[in-house]
Amino acid sequence: MCRNINFIFSRFQILAKLILNFVSSFLFNLNKFYRLFLLIPFLDRGLARRIDDLVLFTRAC
Questions:
Q1: With contact defined as beta carbons under 8 Å apart, do 28 and 55 qualify?
Q2: 44 three-class SS
């Protein structure tokens, strides 16, 4: 029983890591795309900084 639970948790951990990896790479690409097609420079700095923080947080996990 215990081995079964550990197996399920390890699978869940791998899945969670894959999802986090996908989200962080998506946000990283979104940030690059957003900076390329910039419309309002003043708003860009705040949003880009928030996205950078989110990318760093997801990469740290």
A1: yes
A2: helix
Task: Give the total number of structural domains in the chain.
Answer: 1
Residue 53 lies in a domain: yes
Q: Which two tokens stand for residue 46?
A: 């705040």
What integer is the mean pLDDT of 48-57? 72
Q: Which domain holds residue 39?
A: 20-61
* pLDDT the model gives residue 5: 66
For tokens 């215990």, what's the residue?
2
Distances (CA, A) of 26 to 3, 9, 34: 35, 25, 12
